[in-house]
Amino acid sequence: MPRRPRLFIPGLSQHVIQRGNNRGAIFRAPFDYQFFFTVLCHAAGRCGVEVHGYVLMTNHFHLIVTAASPTGLPEMMQTIGRTYVRFFNSRYERTGALWEGRYRASMLHDEKYWTTCLRYVELNPVRAGLVATPELYRWSSYRTHALGQQDPLVGPHPLYLAIGGTAVDRQRAWRTVCGAPIQDDQLARIRHAIHAGRALSDLDFAEAPKERSTPPKLSRPA
């Protein structure tokens, strides 16, 4: 079956997920996360990609990004893969693929789903049972949006800036937004879009399958 062609439109955000091969770990130690973070910062700047949100989990990672050109995101992901996989394989004396196929990307076509998707990404560690509250997890953009922590990777998106008139107002609003769990149907819709490689829109939401209500385990993409 041929791969679904990807659609990249400059100025529109994409939700990106990359998983470990056979759901294996892609980060084994704190230094792995830090090295990946550094590589991601460099690749995003070099390729003209703005990162608005992210979370680095044990066996996968999520990004919300906006590229300045149609080639920006593919080039960034290629750079990350080439550099990080070489580092990881050398560090752990392994060979072969680290990723489970190519990364998946879903265009955030409708503004009203952008905020929901950012919440989905930043609340991943809570859904996976790694932490009780999102600010306790180090490797995500939540503390930047909710607490004002400086992060060299995160570039504010206009939709985030619009939720409050000042930085303090925006942080308070984001904590409130993330204080409520994401509804099961919204989780199902986001997952359906990313796994199908489709834009997250009303049409895709209408076609989403029903999702079970129990939270996913860490070994599964959240």
Spans where pLDDT lies below 50 across 5 or more residues: 203-221
What radius of gyration results from the CA coordinates?
17 Å
Q: Tell me the CATH architecture.
A: 2-Layer Sandwich
Number of helices: 9
Bulk shape: globular
Topology:
Elements: E1 13-19, H1 30-47, E2 49-56, E3 60-67, H2 72-91, E4 104-107, H3 111-122, H4 124-127, H5 142-147, H6 158-161, H7 167-178, H8 184-196, H9 202-207
Antiparallel strand pairs: 1-3, 1-4, 2-3
Helix pairs in contact: 1-2
Describe this structure in words.
This protein is of the alpha+beta class and 222 residues long. It is 43% helix and 12% strand. The chain has a four-stranded antiparallel beta sheet, with helices on both faces. The two termini are 26 Å apart. The C terminus is likely disordered.
Keywords:
222 residues, alpha+beta, Alpha-Beta Plaits, disordered C terminus
Give the structure's gist in a few sentences.
With about 220 residues, the chain is α+β, with helices and mostly antiparallel strands.
